[in-house]
Specification:
Blueprint lengths: L2 E6 L7 H15 L3 E6 L27 H10 L2 E7 L7 H9 L1 H5 L8 E8 L6 H14 L3 E2 L12 E4 L10 H16 L14
Parallel strand pairs: 1-2, 1-3, 3-4, 4-5, 4-6
Length: about 200
């Protein structure tokens, strides 16, 4: 059974990005996957300070915040869907901190390299920076050695999930984005790629 983790990078609770991820994960569950959602809203993931102590304190960071729980979720998953609203043309600072703070997993036998990465972005306009945001998410994921999985869910975008919404709840009207998210969820659940033992947590 595929294990799929969604990380909602919006600082706003119950926002549009989280809504899209919920629909994606629901479709994945219907296709037989086990899923979890980790929303960064209301949580603290401090920026990496480049203290270097993760090299001596493997497997995890010396900072004690909500990233400690997220490490285990990331190790549990076979695939991780990173979701973000568009902030100044890229991902939120909250989501970028997750990638930076995942350095201990990179040092831990490059643990994320055995996992698939997918992305969701929500912008206020139809061409509001969603694709650039997703590209930045994938660039960060590729730095961790993750395998990028495209949506391949025609006719609603065979590249990735780009939603359009501003105010809370507006994303529900973007039927194309919801259909693309559900298609991506099914695709992740049904993938036959063998990523090896990477879904097993190192924390016992």
């Amino acid at each position: 059974m595929k294990r799929i983790l969604g990380i909602a990078g919006s600082p706003r609770p119950d926002g549009n990005t989280e809504f899209v991820l919920e629909r994606l994960l629901a479709a994945a569950e219907a296709a037989g996957a086990e899923t979890r959602l980790f929303a960064l809203a209301g949580k603290t993931v401090a920026p990496c300070t480049d203290c270097g102590q993760c090299t001596d304190r493997q497997p995890y960071c010396v900072q004690s915040d909500d990233m400690q729980a997220l490490y285990d979720h990331m190790l549990w998953a076979h695939a991780i869907v990173f979701g973000s609203p568009v902030y100044m043309g890229t991902m939120t600072a909250q989501l970028k901190a997750v990638f930076d703070r995942a350095r201990p997993l990179w040092l831990m036998d490059n643990a994320l390299s055995r996992k698939a990465a997918a992305a969701v972005a929500v912008g206020e306009g139809r061409w509001g920076g969603q694709e650039l945001t997703i590209q930045n998410i994938y660039w960060a994921a590729l730095n961790h050695g993750m395998v990028v999985v495209g949506g391949a869910c025609l006719p609603y975008g065979n590249w990735e999930v780009c939603g359009m919404a501003g105010a809370a709840g507006e994303i529900a009207a973007d039927k194309e984005a919801i259909a693309a998210a559900e298609g991506l969820g099914r695709r992740l659940a049904e993938m036959t790629i063998d990523f090896g033992p990477g879904g097993e947590s190192a924390r016992r």
